[in-house]
């Protein structure tokens, strides 16, 4: 009898994230003792122009050269997250074409279901507008004012509106702050650059005590030093951490497949390192990865691959935290080379 192993290939069969089993209800999640559930929001109804981010969740799930086996040990820290975490795919939130409010209500309920099932939600976008309902659902569960956000982005996303609409991929952080779900002081922003926002929006951010780390600071002090500040701020700002990753925080050389690219950003290595450290050292109760636009991607879907790896780094960091590997910038000594320290080195220095 021929053995069919095609289901072990990421690009074959049902496209769940990392070939994780599908769960459809909170009861499924609890029955499976699921620790982390990945869900999609295929939505680009509030993005500028024709972004194509509705295709992001499928592209992130679709896979790469890694097979669907459980052998995914992170070579830097020598941890296989699937040895310590139960992962499931929760499918996609229902989006309503032309109905922003209804879609956002569905996203909020979708994330609430994952939380009700006892799992950490990792949401695949979709444009950045979905952070408003997703993070609100997390704040609903843990308490308004109790959740902090580390927000990786080229843009602040704190506009008062987008051409008169309160809904948009440039407004979600403002909506979260104004609603009281996440206070301004609980926001740590990393990677802002370019020519927006304008002074009145920057003044609003300062008046609401957002802790913002611009690329100018990163260029001056090095990403290692700035990330240490962001980790410290995340620890003192709230009881629980939500991570929001807009892939355009990375330079377009590393993430061209996005609707609003901005030159001069982080490298992919820096993004992945930062996500893992936050998940391990601070711990997270939710995450989103947004603004992946497959129509704008090049090569072997390099932007979707970066987004996928960011989720895997979050899983690895979460597993590290579970088994007690929470020391600053942990690396396994077997991976750092003879005579080397266990400290990651960025191009700017340690």
Automatic annotation (TrEMBL):
Mn(2+) binds at residues 128, 153, 155, 157, 246, 248. Signal peptide: none annotated. Its cofactor is Mn(2+). GO terms for biological process: putrescine biosynthetic process from arginine, via agmatine. The keyword Disulfide bond does not apply. Residues 326-350 are annotated as: Disordered. It comes from the Bacteria. Binds 2 manganese ions per subunit. The keyword Metal-binding applies. Keywords: Hydrolase, Manganese, Metal-binding. One of its GO terms (molecular function) is agmatinase activity. Transmembrane segments: none annotated. Pfam families: Arginase. PANTHER family: ARGINASE/AGMATINASE, GUANIDINO ACID HYDROLASE, MITOCHONDRIAL. Belongs to the arginase family. Agmatinase subfamily. This is Agmatinase. It comes from Actinoallomurus iriomotensis. The gene is speB.
């Amino acid at each position: 009898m021929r053995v069919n192993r095609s289901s072990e290939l990421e690009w074959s069969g049902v496209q769940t994230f990392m070939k994780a089993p599908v769960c459809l209800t909170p009861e499924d999640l609890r029955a499976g003792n699921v620790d982390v559930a990945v869900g999609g929001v295929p939505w680009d109804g509030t993005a500028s122009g024709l972004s194509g981010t509705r295709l992001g969740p499928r592209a992130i799930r679709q896979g790469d050269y890694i097979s669907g086996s459980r052998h995914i040990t992170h070579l830097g820290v020598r941890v296989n997250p699937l040895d310590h975490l139960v992962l499931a795919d929760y499918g996609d939130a229902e989006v309503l074409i032309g109905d922003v409010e209804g879609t956002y209500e569905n996203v909020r309920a979708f994330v609430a279901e994952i939380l009700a099932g006892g799992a950490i939600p990792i949401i695949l976008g979709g444009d950045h507008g979905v952070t408003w309902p997703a993070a609100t659902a997390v704040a609903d569960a843990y308490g308004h004012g109790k959740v902090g956000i580390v927000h990786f982005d080229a843009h602040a996303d704190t506009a008062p509106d987008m051409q008169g609409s309160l809904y948009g991929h440039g407004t979600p952080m403002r909506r979260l702050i104004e609603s009281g779900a996440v206070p301004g002081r609980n926001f740590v922003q990393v990677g802002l650059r370019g020519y927006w926002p304008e002074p009145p929006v920057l003044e609003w951010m300062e008046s609401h005590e957002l802790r913002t780390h611009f690329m100018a600071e990163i260029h001056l002090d090095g990403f290692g030093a700035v990330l240490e500040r962001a980790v410290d701020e995340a620890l003192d700002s709230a009881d629980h951490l939500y991570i929001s990753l807009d892939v355009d925080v990375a330079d377009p050389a590393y993430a061209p497949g996005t609707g609003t690219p901005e030159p001069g950003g982080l490298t992919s290595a820096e993004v992945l390192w930062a996500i893992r450290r936050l998940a391990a050292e601070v711990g997270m109760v939710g995450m989103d990865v947004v603004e992946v636009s497959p129509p704008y991607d090049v090569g072997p879907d390099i932007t979707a691959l970066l987004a996928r790896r960011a989720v895997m780094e979050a899983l690895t960091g979460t597993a590290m935290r579970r088994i007690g590997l929470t020391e600053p910038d942990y690396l396994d000594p077997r991976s750092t080379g003879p005579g080397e320290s266990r400290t990651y080195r960025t191009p700017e220095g340690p």
